[in-house]
Design a protein that fits this description.
Keywords: Membrane, Transmembrane, Transmembrane helix. The chain has 410 residues and is mainly alpha-helical. It has 17 helices and no strands. It folds into 2 domains: 11-189, Growth Hormone, Chain: A, CATH 1.20.1250.20; 206-398, Growth Hormone, Chain: A (Up-down Bundle), CATH 1.20.1250.20. The chain is globular, with a radius of gyration of 21 Å.
Length: 410
């Protein structure tokens, strides 16, 4: 790989920059649940209406990810990250000024949702993967994940404290200013002068790369597996706190469990980002991760619910939480190369977010109709088992592009 002079000197800075941008972006998104009640009470809106805006944000994030990836692969990730941060900050600023529910939905759901798509997993990981030399790439991606998870872990208690000392609209403004402050970090993630490829020769056009991926059985297996993972994670993140309280677990125990998930996610993000590829084959590492996550869920609902069992489950799930993201990005790059990695991951992440949408919605529907989470627990366990099984037969060999573009598209 022909890297620009001085890339080794700025390797640490770009990893730090990517982790900070990604962590602040995802931490801001995660903390938005804390705004539900203050915004609802302050503007006399139903909690359901406020929740819809944040649900719309997740959906827009997923729907725009393929387009965001295409733009990043065409014009470089630095521009996408820069404008993504600006859009996210603008959305938060507008949310602080909102007095109309429709405008709040447009600002929180659409403006912030599009901004989130330019500052989260796909663009950041792909940028680091394209710049850092192959020998150091796994460690760099693992480090970005760990830094991002650490920042994300710190943002939530910061927002909680801010909401205790000032109004919700002022807190939105503070988050907008923090996002604007990290805009210059996008410059460190530019790929100009670095080879835009990953492993092996790349498809010469975006259309050829997309056609190639859509004709590859392994890409569909990976996409469906990532969709099942999204279903499982969304159920856990959106409903475990309610499940614990509904089962009589004290609120402080539930809060500590959520903190444990965030804390152990730091270690998991680094470990799975680092071992995938250089140490173990990514498809088997993904299958192992999904299997462990599923077995942890089976064990949790099979033993008496106590603070100890809750903490053990939270620690295990947190360690397995977001390790699937760098592994999935790495597997796509391993098979199809790095030139259009952000675009291809965008389509995979769209599937993940669609799975997440149904994971949240179906859990609420099942609980409202049955008064219990039991059936959705088992459905989520089945989704995790399916994700593990789908990854086993993936052909993860690097594509040998010996045919012409016409033959590929024929």
């Amino acid at each position: 790989m022909n890297l620009p002079n001085g890339v080794l000197r700025r390797w640490g800075l770009l990893v730090l920059a990517g982790g900070i941008v990604m962590g602040l972006s995802l931490g801001t998104r995660q903390s938005q649940a804390l705004f539900m009640l203050p915004v609802s009470m302050g503007l006399d809106w139903a909690i359901e209406d406020v929740g819809f805006a944040f649900a719309l944000q997740n959906l827009i994030w997923g729907l725009t990810q393929p387009l965001t990836g295409m733009i990043a692969d065409r014009f470089g990730p630095a521009r996408v990250i820069f404008f993504g941060v600006l859009l996210y900050a603008a959305g938060l600023f507008a949310m602080a000024q909102a007095s109309d529910l429709l405008l709040f939905n447009l600002n929180a759901g659409v403006l912030a949702g599009v901004g989130l798509g330019g500052t989260a997993f796909g663009v950041i990981y792909s940028a680091v993967g394209k710049i850092v030399p192959p020998g150091d790439r796994a460690f760099a991606i693992g480090a970005v994940g760990a830094i991002g998870a650490t920042v994300q872990f710190l943002v939530v208690p910061f927002v909680h404290e801010m909401l205790n000392t000032q109004a919700w609209d002022g807190t939105f403004l503070v988050l907008a200013v923090l996002l604007l402050a990290v805009c210059p970090l996008a410059w460190l993630l530019r790929t100009r002068g670095a080879e835009e490829g990953g492993t092996g020769p790349d498809a010469p056009t975006m259309g050829a790369a997309l056609s190639e991926a859509l004709r590859h059985r392994g890409f569909w297996l990976l996409l469906f597996g990532f969709t099942a993972s999204g279903f499982q994670l969304a159920f856990l993140s959106g409903n475990v706190p309610s499940y614990l309280v509904d089962r009589g677990v004290p609120l402080p125990v539930a809060g500590t469990a959520i903190a444990l998930i965030s804390l152990t996610n730091i270690a998991g993000a680094f470990v799975f980002g680092y071992v995938g590829g250089p140490v173990f084959r990514r498809k088997y590492t993904l299958a192992f991760l999904y299997t462990c996550r599923t077995l942890a869920m089976v064990a949790f609902i099979s033993v008496p619910l106590t603070p100890v069992s809750t903490y053990l489950f939270a620690a295990m799930i947190g360690f397995l939480w977001l390790g699937s993201v760098p592994l999935t990005i790495g597997l796509i790059g391993q098979i199809f190369g790095g030139r259009y990695l952000t675009t291809l991951f965008g389509f995979a992440f769209l599937g993940h977010q669609l799975g997440a949408f149904f994971g949240i919605w179906l859990a609420g529907y099942v609980f409202d109709t049955t008064g219990s989470y039991s059936s959705i627990w088992w459905l989520s366990i089945g989704a995790g088992a399916l994700a593990a099984l789908l990854h086993m037969p993936i052909n993860d060999r690097e594509l040998a592009r010996r045919k012409s573009i016409e033959a590929v598209l024929a």
